[in-house]
Specification:
alpha/beta; six-stranded mixed beta sheet; 7 helices; elongated
Length: about 290
C-alpha cells in the first residue's frame, strides 16, 4: 500500500510502499512430509578361490576364508534394516577341489547363489551357505561379475525396487580367462610367487593364470551402465594388485574417500574385524540418503 504517513507498517520502502500482508501466508508450513529411505539392494560377490584357505599372515591361527565368514556374519547381523542382501561366490560353489587349484567354472544362467531379499531370513541363509562352503579354484572375477550383470539386467534382479549395488570382495588378481595371453609381469602365478622358476613365464603354458583385469573392468563398466555401482574390497593378498583394484573402484562409481587407496583395503592384522568395519562403513553410508 502507498505510504500515508511516517507510521506505516515497517517504515518507508525504496519504492514508496510498505508491506501489509503476504498473500497465503496463513497456509505456510501446514503440510508435513516424512523422509523415506531408498531401498538398498546389495549382491555380495565373494572370492572363494584356493588362496582363501591360507592364513592372512604368519601369526594368524585361522584362514582368510574363516576370517571372511566371521566378518560377514557380524556385518550382516549389524547391517541397517533397509539393506537387502544376496550372494554370489566364485568360482562355482560345488566346484570339485581335485583340479590342482586352477578350476575356473561358473554356473550358467542369470541366477545367483542366493537372490537378493530383505529381512533376517536371507541374511541367515547367506551365513549358513558360507559355513557349508570351502575355498578352492581360481579367481574368475570377470565371469562372476558377468553373472551379476545378467542377474541385474535380465534376471530377477532387474525388477528390484530401489538402488542396486555389487560388493566385490577378493584376495587376489582376477584370472581364469583361457583366451588371454600375457608376459611374465602380468602372470598371476608369477606375481603371487607360485611359479617354481620365477624367471620363467608360467602363463605361457597356463593362459588361465594371466591377469584378467581388462575383462573385469569391462564387466564393472557394464554394471555401471545399468545403474549398478560396485564397491571393491581388497582382502589380504591383493596388495600387489592395488593399481588394478583402484581402477576397478573408480569405474564402479564408489571409490573410498579419505584413504590413499580408492578401493576398500583390509589389512592382514585383524582381518576379520577390519572387514566387518569396512562392510559396516559401506552399508551405513548407503541408507543415509532419502527421497
Amino acid at each position: 500500500a502507498p505510504v500515508t504517513g511516517t507510521g506505516g507498517f515497517g517504515g518507508d520502502l525504496s519504492g514508496g510502499f510498505v508491506c501489509k500482508e503476504f498473500a497465503g501466508l496463513g497456509n505456510c508450513g501446514v503440510d508435513a512430509v516424512t523422509a523415506k529411505t531408498t531401498p538398498v539392494n546389495m549382491l555380495l560377490v565373494l572370492d572363494k578361490s584356493g588362496s582363501m584357505a591360507s592364513p592372512p599372515d604368519e601369526s594368524s591361527s585361522v584362514s582368510l576364508w574363516d576370517a571372511t565368514r566371521s566378518a560377514l556374519s557380524t556385518a550382516l547381523e549389524d547391517a541397517p534394516a533397509p539393506v537387502s542382501f544376496g550372494l554370489q561366490m566364485y568360482p562355482a560353489r560345488d566346484l570339485a577341489l581335485d583340479c590342482g587349484g586352477n578350476c575356473c567354472d561358473m554356473p550358467d544362467g542369470e541366477g545367483v547363489d542366493i537372490p537378493i531379499e530383505e529381512g533376517d531370513d536371507v541374511r541367515e541363509r547367506i551365513v549358513h551357505m558360507l559355513e557349508r562352503t570351502n575355498p578352492g579354484g581360481g579367481t574368475p572375477t570377470a565371469a562372476a561379475l558377468a553373472r551379476a550383470y545378467s542377474y541385474f539386467s535380465t534376471g530377477a534382479g532387474a525388477d528390484l525396487e530401489g538402488d542396486r549395488f555389487v560388493l566385490l570382495a577378493t584376495d587376489g588378481g582376477p584370472n581364469c580367462n583361457s583366451g588371454a595371453s600375457c608376459e611374465l609381469d602380468a602372470c598371476t602365478v608369477n606375481i603371487d610367487g607360485q611359479c617354481k622358476n620365477p624367471e620363467v613365464n608360467c602363463c605361457s603354458t597356463n593362459r588361465a593364470g594371466c591377469l584378467d583385469d581388462a575383462e573385469t573392468l569391462g564387466q564393472i563398466q557394464l554394471l555401471r551402465g545399468i545403474g549398478v555401482d560396485t564397491f571393491v574390497v581388497g582382502l589380504t593378498g591383493t596388495e600387489q594388485y592395488a593399481e588394478q583394484l583402484d581402477e576397478f573402484a573408480v569405474a564402479g562409481g564408489r571409490p573410498r574417500e579419505g584413504k590413499p587407496e580408492k578401493y576398500f583395503k583390509v589389512g592382514a592384522q585383524g582381518s576379520a574385524d577390519g572387514l566387518a568395519q569396512v562392510l559396516s562403513e559401506i552399508t551405513t553410508q548407503l541408507v543415509q540418503s532419502c527421497d
